[in-house]
Write a structure and sequence with these properties.
Oligomer: single chain
GO cellular component, one term: membrane
Distance between the termini: 69 Å
Number of helices: 3
Radius of gyration: 28 Å
Largest sheet: none
Order of helices and strands: HHH
InterPro entries: ABC1_TM_sf
Keywords: Membrane, Transmembrane, Transmembrane helix
GO molecular function, one term: ATP binding
Shape: rod-shaped
């Protein structure tokens, strides 16, 4: 029912060719590929930053959670320094 285009594809889009990832890089130059890689690394780093912050904060709060009891009165700042230096 639909009219056919130049490649025999239906204008309505019923018989579209399969597109691959190679088509993304087909027209890209070195700068484009570099920016895509830097964007990918930035997205990975952004996704990991929250997890790293939560891990650091949980270790810090665990060391603070020992409290100021007579058993570990002298170890309080030592425990905080251990977490801070790692």
């Amino acid at each position: 029912m639909g009219s056919e285009g130049k490649n025999g594809d239906t204008v309505g889009g019923n018989k579209e060719k399969k597109k691959s990832i190679a088509m993304i890089f087909g027209c890209a130059d070195f700068v484009d590929i570099l920016l895509m890689l830097l964007g990918t690394l930035g997205a990975i780093g952004d996704g990991m930053s929250t997890n790293c912050l939560l891990l650091y904060a949980s270790r810090l709060f665990n060391s603070l959670g020992y409290g100021n009891t007579p058993e570990n009165h002298g170890n309080f700042m030592v425990e905080v320094d251990k977490v801070y230096k790692h």
